[in-house]
Records
---
Amino acid sequence: MDDDIYISIAFPSTYHPCTNVPRQVLGSAIALRILFGAPLWLGCIITVLDTFVFLLLHLYGVRKLEAFFLALVGVMAVAFCTNFFIDAPPPGMFFVFIFFIITLLHFLL
């Protein structure tokens, strides 16, 4: 009887990643098509290759992989700040938005 419970728990947990991987690859390929106009097959190849790059970085150590992701987040932060200061919203709207977020979080929490 215990074996049946183990199989009923183990099977969905191994089946779930198999169904998500094609959706994630196709989703990334569609995003690359929308952003850059790349064909879907090229987007799938790029997505698979960057997955293998992440796995290769993981072989060199978790800290190197974390440093790589930190660099990616840093590039995103610099790009966001650059866009924010080049095309800045009106100052009043920024503070209204911050007040709205704080009020919303106050009521949700």
Note: The mean pLDDT is 83.
---
Amino acid sequence: MKRTVYTKTLPLLSFFFFVITSCADQYKGEEQKTNNKKTANETQKDQADLFAKKDIDTAQYNKILKALANNDSTGRWPAKAPYP
């Protein structure tokens, strides 16, 4: 009785394993095509741009936080913290 269960499930599991592993290899070639080599100066400039301090609109920031908190009136949310 157990032998028939294995003969039915083993091909099915093998098929799913094959499909899952073959789909994962599909995107590997695209990553290699789009991978451009940059110089050290370009990467440093890109990182500096990412971490550059930008001014924010505090009124808009407070409005968004209040909307995210669903206009909570208990005062517990949003938590009081310095502006990013």
Note: The mean pLDDT is 76.
